[in-house]
Amino acid sequence: MAESFFATLKNELIGAQPWPSRSAAHTAFEWIEGWYNLHRLHCSLGYRSPADYEAALAA
């Protein structure tokens, strides 16, 4: 369900305004692609974030 929500968010963000530059568009997606995807909990990872899961594997 979260993936569907963020797909909708991305589509609305793209259609909401014309982007003055490619870097401005990239900045708009930084939070979703950077923070959210690394820190949200995944049931397939035992309700751990990908960052936590990878850190546990490396330890």
TrEMBL record:
Q: Which part of the chain is the Integrase catalytic domain?
A: 2-50
Q: Which organism is it from?
A: Streptomyces seoulensis
Biological process (GO) annotations?
Answer: DNA integration
Q: Cross-referenced Pfam families, in alphabetical order?
A: rve_3
Q: What is this protein called?
A: Integrase catalytic domain-containing protein
